[in-house]
Specification:
- Helices cover 46% and strands 22% of the residues.
- It has 281 residues and is α+β, with helices and mostly antiparallel strands.
- The protein folds into 3 domains: 9-90, no CATH class; 95-202, 2-Layer Sandwich (Tetrahydropterin Synthase, Chain A), CATH 3.30.479; 207-266.
- Strands 7, 8, 9 and 10 form a 4-stranded antiparallel beta sheet that branches.
- A hairpin with a 2-residue loop joins strand 3 (59-65) and strand 4 (68-73).
- Helix 6 (204-243) crosses helix 7 (251-266).
């Protein structure tokens, strides 16, 4: 069922017409010229009064006639339609929904806690009213279901260079979550404007272990950078000593020098130098 424009006219114009009819009837009553036509006009005018209704900004009226959908009215202000049309108000304003924190397993089987904030609004009033029983409850349940399905599709942390993870790629994850929720809410006439993760953490039972793993990864990355820099400095030192003919070193002495330099450059504590005052050999 798709939304269509329902019949309605400007209520202010109809109100002026009814005032003119009322004035005419009053004049006819004073003059004593009441006839059958005047009575019919009066009855029709009275029956037309329930056809007035007000549409607030960012609201719509869904109209039905004896159980059949006849259209929706989104024009703001005072409107008038056929009095027999039943009218139901539905909000078109943008709304926020924040899910509860739920525990799920990520793509690697690690238990995590995750929650989301979804920004949505009604786009098709007919589908929102007639396709689902309660579109607000439908949005809440389907958003949590989509979040759970999305969470098991990605790992919490990035373990490969081009791998998309929940923690390291918030923009990509948000787009995937928005698409997942929109697909589920399409049948309810709801448009998803934004969907973002509001809470993300490891479950308490593995939080300490995962923290140690993250710290170990950081230490390894730092050590790798230090070793790369130290090897470059050692290579530069040996090259300059050879090019400037400062000292000639055999392979054994080069190995000793390389060992000493790497210890000095890679150690996380200050080293104590030992001065050799004797012969090099």
């Amino acid at each position: 069922m798709n939304e269509k424009i329902g019949f309605s006219v400007n209520g202010y114009g109809v109100f002026v017409v009814l005032l003119a009819v009322a004035g005419f009837m009053l004049i006819q009553a004073v003059a004593g010229n009441i006839d059958a036509l005047s009575v019919i006009i009066f009855v029709v005018s009275v029956l037309a009064i329930p056809g007035f209704f007000m549409v607030q900004p960012n609201q719509a009226k869904v109209m039905t006639f004896f159980g059949s959908y006849v259209g929706s009215v989104k024009a703001n202000g005072l409107r008038w339609t056929i009095p027999l049309f039943m009218r139901k108000t539905i909000s078109l304003r943008i709304r926020n929904f924040e899910s509860n924190q739920m525990k799920v397993n990520d793509n690697h089987g690690n238990p995590i806690e995750i929650a989301t904030v979804v920004v949505w609004s009604v786009d098709d009033t007919a589908e929102a009213v007639f396709e689902v029983d309660d579109y607000i409850s439908f949005v809440n349940i389907q958003s949590e279901s989509a979040l759970r399905n999305m969470a098991i599709s990605y790992p919490y942390d990035q373990h490969k260079g081009d791998e998309i993870a929940l923690r390291s790629h918030p923009q990509e994850v948000s787009e995937a979550l928005k698409g997942e929720i929109q697909q589920r809410l399409e049948k309810a006439g709801v448009k998803v404007h934004e969907a973002r993760i509001s809470h993300l953490a490891y479950a308490p039972e593995i939080a300490n272990a995962m923290l140690q793993r993250q710290q170990a990864s950081a230490i390894i990355a730092a050590r790798r950078l230090i070793v790369d820099g130290a090897v470059g400095m050692v290579e530069m030192a040996l090259t300059q000593l050879s090019e400037k003919d400062i000292v000639e070193l055999d392979e054994e002495r080069k190995a000793t020098m390389v060992s000493n330099l790497l210890v000095v450059l890679c150690s996380d504590k200050s080293t104590q130098p030992v001065v050799n005052t004797g012969s090099l050999y």
